[in-house]
Amino acid sequence: MHELTSPQEMRAWSRAERARNRRIGFVPTMGFLHEGHLRLVDRARERSDRVVLSIFVNPLQFGPNEDLAQYPRDLERDRRLAAARGVDCLFVPDVAAMYPTEPLVRVHPGPMGDTLEGAARPGHFAGVLTVVAKLFHYVEPDIAIFGRKDFQQAMLVQRMARDLDFGVEIDVAPTVRELDGLALSSRNTYLKGDDRRAALALSRALRAVEQAWRNGEADPKALQRRGLEVLRAPDVRPEYLELVDDQLRPVARADARTVVVLAARVGPARLIDNVVLGEGIASDVAVRTS
C-alpha cells in the first residue's frame, strides 16, 4: 500500500494509474476506520482497478462548539485496516497541505444544505463540499463511494458532482449496522454502557415508521409522530425526525422512495440515521463487530 501526504504526489500517482488504463475508486474518510468504511473499500474494489482511501479530519466542517479536538483518531490502526482490506493508496494529508492559506472561497450547498443537518450545524455542508471538491481534484477518481448513513451528505455530493461537472460517478452504498441495528459510526466510540443501549432507540424508531407505512399509513405527520414516540426514549434527546425525498424536500405523502431521516443525542454522542421506506433496515448490511 502506497501512503502519500502531498496533494501533488496524490494527483501524480492517480494520473499514472489512469495512464495505464486503470479505473480509480475513491473512499474519503475522516479516519478511525470501522467495518462501515471497510465495506465501502470492498465496493470500490468491485467497481475499480485501484482503490484510494483518504484520511483527513476536516476542520471546515466542525462548528466552534463541536468535537474537532476530541474526534477519535488512530492512524496506526487505520493503516493496518486499510492495508488488510486491499487499499492501494492511502492519502493522509495534514491541514497545512489541504489548506495552505485560509480558504476564502467555499462550495455553498444551496437550499439542499439548509435543512436537517444543515440547520442543526450551520456551515457544516459548506465545509464538507469544499473538502470533497478538493479531494476530487487531487485524487481524480472515476468513482467515489459514500455511505447512505450520511444521507444528506451523499445527496449533496451527488448534486455537486452533477452541477459542477466533476466527471466522477457517486455511488451510495447501504448503511452498515451492528447486529442489533445500531448504524456504524466513528462517534459510537463515545457510547458506553447505558448510552450504547439507549442508542438503539434510533433504529427502533426507523423500524416503527417503516412498519406503520407498510401497514397502510402514508400521512407524513402521522408517521413522524409514530417515530418520535419511539425515539423519545430514556436518555435519548431527539433533534429531528423528518420524511423527505432524495432532494431533501418534505413529502406530501409517503411512498416507497421516501427517506426517514433522524438525529438524536445520546450521552456525549450526536447520532444520525435513516431508512428508505421501500427498502427498510433489513436491506442494510448487518455485521458483528465485537
Secondary structure layout:
Blueprint: E1 2-4, H1 7-19, E2 24-29, H2 35-47, E3 50-55, H3 75-85, E4 89-91, H4 95-98, H5 117-120, H6 124-139, E5 143-147, H7 151-163, E6 169-173, E7 176-178, H8 194-198, H9 200-214, H10 220-231, E8 236-244, E9 259-266, E10 269-276, E11 285-287
Parallel strand pairs: 1-4, 2-3, 2-5, 3-4, 5-6, 7-11
Antiparallel strand pairs: 8-9, 9-10
Structural write-up:
By secondary structure, the chain is of the alpha/beta class. It has two domains: 2-173, HUPs (Rossmann fold); 180-287, Pantoate-beta-alanine ligase, C-terminal domain (Pantoate--beta-alanine Ligase, Chain: A,domain 2, 2-Layer Sandwich). Helices cover 37% and strands 20% of the residues. The protein contains ten helices and eleven strands. It has helices spanning 7-19, 35-47, 75-85, 95-98, 117-120, 124-139, 151-163, 194-198, 200-214, 220-231; strands spanning 2-4, 24-29, 50-55, 89-91, 143-147, 169-173, 176-178, 236-244, 259-266, 269-276, 285-287. The chain has a six-stranded parallel beta sheet, with helices on both faces. The protein has a three-stranded antiparallel beta sheet with strand order 8-9-10. Strand 2, helix 2 (35-47) and strand 3 (50-55) form a beta-alpha-beta unit. The longest helix has 16 residues, at 124-139. The chain starts with a strand and ends with a strand.
